[in-house]
Amino acid sequence: MKRRTFISALCGGVALGFGTKGASATTPESTEKGNASETLNWRRFEFADKKMGVPTRIVMHAPNSETANAAANAVWKRFDELNAALSDYDSESEIVRVCRESGESGAPVAISGDLRRTLEESRRFCVLTGGAFDATVGPVVKLWRRSRYFNERPPEKILEAAKKTVGLDGWKLTETGVETAPGVRFDVGGIAKGFALDEALETLRTFGIESALVDAGGDLRLGAAPPGKDGWTIGVAGLVKDGEPAFYRTLANVGVASSGDANRFLELDGVRYSHIIDPRTGEPLTRRCVATVVAADATAADALASAVCVLGLDETPKLLERLKNIDAEEAGAPGRFESLETILYRVKNDAEPPFTAEKIDVFATPGFADVWPTR
Ligand code: AMP
Ligand code: MG
């Protein structure tokens, strides 16, 4: 039996406000494909660093170390650029500054191409998920972050005021910039890591590198399979904090993201409050759950993993049905949701670990359903 090297499930949560991590990468151990290609002789290179507040890692197959180093450095630079634009932890980041300036002046503020694309995608996924994903949860997220620190519910009046700033009506993109109502604060922590991963793969492609895996805190973008293999074998998150993956899948050319409250939550009077907020109520989720989504790109997987946690077992199937039937313009790209796969698992009532199959409710689409519960 081949040895499986596990890149541990990573716990996110600093610069971009990223949440609990799930999917993680293992060394490829899929079957040999045997189709000859010049890239079969390319070597595997790995790089790791902390970027955007989370551990990040690049695995790639490249012709030589010069190309690999140059490509990795370009990815790190790209991550730094995106962090400077999109972090809500940095009061001088572009995203924080534009809300402040537009809120005060009541006028649109010019924005970079990166911020525009991130906000366009944020709006798209807010519409597509019926508001389950909403990047204007910033003020509510901040209050609950403070609550985790002080171990108390946010003061009701302040929370009510923050809830009023959430929603699509409080902001719009204009030709040159963005206009936000007073009090609106973006938090793209639920989508920006996916966006950064997609950008990383594009960056690698400019160096001729197609076979790559980029990992940001456990969310992944997979390029073409390693030479001679069927795909990258990845571990899918379980419900236990920093635990072993629940199971493995072998995938290529997709984004994979996980959301859930295995690692970041507040417990008050026996109620477990997640770092994921239901934007429709302004309240954190209180059921222990983890969702992993596979989509054509990591931006979609990231946003949808957060949304699926909010929508839960009842509403998620309806969302997936809806996504299957939308056109390319609404989706943002042709075929974006064709290969969509989802697994959501949630602890039944007050079940305690170990979370065996009987203690959890599962919703899984084919793909995940095929391997569940062989963990
Ligand atoms: P993720 O780990 O991708 O689910 O992202 C979680 C982060 O996204 C949180 O730490 C918040 O900063 C933000 N967030 C929480 N709830 C939502 C939501 N319903 N929609 C969009 N972003 C959210
Ligand atoms: Mg997300």
List keywords for this structure.
375 residues, alpha+beta, T-fold, 2 domains, 8-stranded antiparallel β-sheet, 3-stranded antiparallel β-sheet, 9 helices, 18 strands, globular, disordered N terminus, binds adenosine monophosphate, binds magnesium ion
Task: Please outline the helices and strands.
Elements: E1 24-25, E2 43-51, E3 54-62, H1 65-86, H2 94-105, E4 109-110, H3 113-128, H4 138-150, H5 156-163, E5 171-173, E6 177-180, H6 192-205, E7 212-216, E8 219-222, E9 232-236, E10 247-251, E11 254-260, E12 265-268, E13 271-274, E14 277-278, E15 283-284, E16 289-295, H7 298-324, H8 328-331, E17 341-347, E18 360-364, H9 368-371
Antiparallel strand pairs: 1-9, 2-3, 3-7, 4-6, 5-6, 7-8, 8-11, 9-10, 11-16, 12-13, 14-15, 16-17, 17-18
Helix pairs in contact: 1-6, 3-7, 6-7
Q: Please, could you describe this protein's structure?
A:
The protein is globular, with a radius of gyration of 20 Å. The chain has 9 helices and 18 strands. It has 2 domains: 24-28 and 42-83 and 191-371, ApbE-like domains (T-fold); 87-125 and 134-180, no CATH class. An 8-stranded antiparallel beta sheet has the order 2-3-7-8-11-16-17-18, with helices on one face. Strands 1-9-10 form a 3-stranded antiparallel beta sheet, with no helix packed on it. With 375 residues, the chain is of the alpha+beta class. Residues 1-22 and 24-36 have low confidence and may be disordered. The chain has helices at 65-86, 94-105, 113-128, 138-150, 156-163, 192-205, 298-324, 328-331, 368-371; strands spanning 24-25, 43-51, 54-62, 109-110, 171-173, 177-180, 212-216, 219-222, 232-236, 247-251, 254-260, 265-268, 271-274, 277-278, 283-284, 289-295, 341-347, 360-364. A hairpin with a 2-residue loop joins strand 12 and strand 13 (271-274). Helix 1 (65-86) runs antiparallel to helix 6 and helix 3 runs parallel beside helix 7. Helices cover 32% and strands 23% of the residues.
